[in-house]
UniProtKB/TrEMBL annotation:
GO molecular function, one term: nucleotide binding
Domain Gfo/Idh/MocA-like oxidoreductase N-terminal residues, every copy: 3-119
Name used for this protein in its record: Gfo/Idh/MocA family oxidoreductase
InterPro entries listed in its UniProt record: Gfo/Idh/MocA-like_OxRdtase_N (IPR000683), Gfo/Idh/MocA_Oxidoreductase (IPR052515), GFO_IDH_MocA-like_dom (IPR055170), NAD(P)-bd_dom_sf (IPR036291)
Segments forming a coiled coil: none
Domain GFO/IDH/MocA-like oxidoreductase: 147-243
Matching Pfam families: GFO_IDH_MocA, GFO_IDH_MocA_C3
Length: 323
């Protein structure tokens, strides 16, 4: 079965999906829409797709089986609900939104429609991450240390907290998600955020330039996540899972993992393209009707969003927020 796909958005993340889907035998991108018509035309030319007149026109169940929603989180409106009500299967890029109430309403509509759905937490699809998940099964973690440090997104909207969710919500969401995917659900969170550099360098922005988040998991493990989006001379990411008799370290956003215990000290670097693995899994799910290959559903992605929102609330209220 060929899965006919519509793409809403033609920016960088959409291009990543286009490049991945070109390699998926069952996938055929047939239409693309973006408010930037020139960008949509350029993206469509890569795969021989047509340019849709609007997002609503693209969401035509007579023409597409599935849609990839790759526009920024502030610009999605009711796209997910419209697609679901029309019986179109849905892939939505992370983060799922900026507020929990509308995202939960969308999830209900998606669930009631019965369409196949997935959220774009691509790092779950690394074979290295799957190895770590298998290794940690049944083990007792008592400490998690994570960071993600780098530069800012160039788009003007990204620097506005109410449009992007900040670095924590838009980028560090991958580390937040990987922790809960590998170690279990969060219990509570406290946080502090600062603008020590941005308030001088870019006072028109509203995002923090750094954050320090502490949390506990339902398992009893505790941990921290530190992040910055304004680092010129250092960038990288890391998550350490520490137990009494083991340590697992994940770097490169999941590409490289190290496992150390009493019997082994190994480091593995993945050669996979996780975007290809993720998109292939979604297409195969649509083709077969089986959700087994999808590692993050829309409903699952809501719990990652909930942590981000709770972290900002904790900082604002100077208190611990339960999840």
């Amino acid at each position: 079965m060929t899965v006919k796909i519509g793409m809403i958005g033609a920016g960088g993340i959409a291009r990543s999906h286009i490049n991945a889907l070109k390699k998926v035998e069952q996938a055929k991108i047939v239409s693309i829409f973006d408010l930037n018509t020139a960008g949509a035309q350029e993206a469509a030319a890569l795969v021989g797709a047509r340019v849709a007149e609007s997002a609503d026109a693209l969401l035509n169940p007579q023409e597409i089986d599935a849609v990839f929603i790759c526009v920024p989180q502030f610009a999605r409106g009711e796209l997910e609900e419209i697609a679901a009500k029309r019986g179109i299967h849905i892939f939505v890029e992370k983060p799922l939104g900026l507020e929990l109430a509308p995202v939960r309403q969308k999830e209900q509509t998606i669930r009631e429609s019965g369409v196949i759905n997935a959220a774009g937490y691509v790092l779950r699809y690394f074979d290295t991450v799957q190895k770590v998940k298998q290794y940690l099964e049944g083990k007792t973690i008592h400490l998690i240390q994570a960071f993600r440090i780098g530069g800012s997104h160039p788009a003007p909207w990204w620097s506005q907290l109410h449009m992007s969710g900040g670095n924590l919500g838009d980028a560090v969401t991958h580390q937040i998600d990987m922790i809960r995917y590998l170690a279990g659900e969060y219990k509570d969170v406290t946080a502090q955020f600062g603008r020590n550099s941005l308030q001088t360098l870019k006072p028109e922005t509203t995002i923090p330039d750094a954050g320090a988040v502490s949390f506990s998991l339902q398992s009893g493990a505790v941990g921290t996540i530190t992040e910055s989006c304004l680092s010129t001379h250092f960038s990288g990411s890391e998550i350490k899972f520490i137990g009494a008799d083991f340590m697992v370290n994940i770097t490169g956003n999941g590409r490289t993992v190290s496992i150390i215990d009493n019997t082994q000290n190994i480091t593995i670097t993945s050669r996979q393209d996780p975007s290809y693995v993720q998109d292939k899994a979604f297409v195969e799910a649509v083709a077969s009707g089986s959700r087994e290959s999808i590692l993050c559903s829309y409903a699952d992605g809501i719990n990652t969003l909930a942590f981000t929102i709770a972290a900002y609330q904790a900082a604002e209220k100077r208190s611990t927020i339960s999840l």
